[in-house]
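debug: dumping io for the single-chain case to check the tokenizer round-trip. Nothing else runs in this session.
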Amino acid sequence: MQELSSIFDGSAITKAEVLDDSKATLAPKISQEESWLSFDEEASVLHNKVRAFAGWPGTRARILVIDEKSDKRSKLELKSI
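debug: decoded output
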């Protein structure tokens, strides 16, 4: 936040540091398994995961649905795109 004004007025270019490309690393590819939501995680983590996986592969969640009258249980898979 302290340097934001220098970006707008153009003086940040004098403070910029050259990065060493030889130290750059590649990030691993995103897998579909990473897109599953686990509701024991904090809400902020779930929120960021939904944002990160928007589009492809989307986020997915498994929910247990219980019919109170018949006590019938079924698993439901949801996908958020």
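debug: round-trip ok. Residues 32-81 form one domain.
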